[in-house]
Amino acid sequence: MSTKNPEIAIVPEADIPDRQTLEWHAGDMPYSQEFGDHFYCREDGRLECGHVFLAGNGLPGRWRRSGTFRIGELGFGTGLNFCETWRQWKAAAAERTNLHFVSFERFPMRAGDIGRALSHWPEIDTERQALCAAWPDAPTGHIDLDLASDVRLTVVCGPAFDTIPGFPAPFDAWYLDGFAPRRNPDMWSQELMRVVQEKTVEEGTFATYAAAGFVRRNLQNAGFAVERRPGFGSKREMLCGVKSTSGVAE
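User: That's the sequence. What structure does it adopt?
Assistant: Structure tokens below.
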């Protein structure tokens, strides 16, 4: 699916089990042995979520309108991005608006692992407890959770390239949060970025912590106008952008 680059450490699909093997590093930080990567930044994953995914998509400002605001995410992981987004959603108190957060995750974690990872942040403890209480014992297929009268979470289990095209509605914003591009390049391929672009509303947006040159080019070639911004913490840059037929905005 992706253009092969000899400098990129590719994880062969045949070598990836049905569920990832987790290690737990300092501060209950989950680490995937298969991908050789942490699930979020070691400085502060919750603050990075706000800097990259929410601010990069112009949120919460864009929530102040009627209707359903739909966020798509590549890689649910521990649910950190969802919980922080839900926390900020409640703080923004958007009237006459519903949030539908849809994440595409090939290897869903167990509730106990999610709870352990998210216990690091007391700021999202309410959201963590609600998520873990509703999370199925054997997460597979389509997980649909109505967690509040105005908040719905859907986690679609399976390869993103196969599952995104069948989703029935387009997205207002995307969180592109797969494992690091050098560890999991298929998650950042031009083919997958094109699928994401096709499932984005006009003037819809994306944001990602990744800033690798091939990621930027794949997003541009897929039909996004891409902007570089300062990254979070020690990361020099991040990318964000808008669906466009005109090309690049740098």
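Helices lie at 45-56, 80-92, 111-118, 125-134, 160-163, 190-198, 213-222.
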